[in-house]
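Collaborator request, handled under Task 6.
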Amino acid sequence: MALLCTQSAFFLNHRSLPYQVSCSLSPSSKIRLLQLTKAQMPPVSATAASSQSGSSVESLADVGIFTATGEFVLFKDLWDQNEGVAVVALLRHFGCICCWELASALKEVKPKLDASGVKLIAVGVGPSEKARMLAERLPFPMDCLYADPDRKAYNLLGLYYGFGRTFFNRASTKVFSRFDSLKKVWKNYTITATPDDRSSVLQQGGMFVFKGNQLLYSRKDEGTGDHAPLDEVINISCSATSNA
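Structure tokens returned to the collaborator:
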């Protein structure tokens, strides 16, 4: 809980953010604000997977993002658009502790994906220099990490965005069962990896599996830390290569 509160406090104490939250609020007032907002949140949808329109998936191919070293690339150039299988993990922003946790978990399963010929692609919100902070400190393979500072892919795929989704969605309670993995990444974590555009912290992520330009799996994160089950992602992606 303390890890999420760190990011909540970080959000509440920046004047440049949308939602005119006063920095003059007392600590008790801020806590009350969080409680009121949480009470107004609707229940989480029971549907984990979400379908994407064919047009949005096709349009993703021409979306431009950046490597962790700052080079411009198109999505369609990241994997074979005919038969290549790719796991595309859209993280939140590079300063999100839950995204460091997910990146750590993805790194652990990467050997299994590699052995099956599945390409791992992780994309985060923020500039390339923030991506490098995560890659160097976690650490995480820099050749698998990309930056989408303008959230173009996120918008195209309709991933969730907003204050309530970020801090108070009931799906975020899943992180309570993952304290060990969060503590593990906390050792090297830095909040300075957060994008300078503070509105970026309101973006949620998602997980996708592609075979060529065909979408095999799609899941939107309902709230912060509500990650797709990696066993499910591995089974779908590795099965796709074995059936090629």
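The cover message to the collaborator said: "The chain has one domain: 2-42+53-242. The radius of gyration is 18 Å. Please let us know whether this matches your experimental observations."
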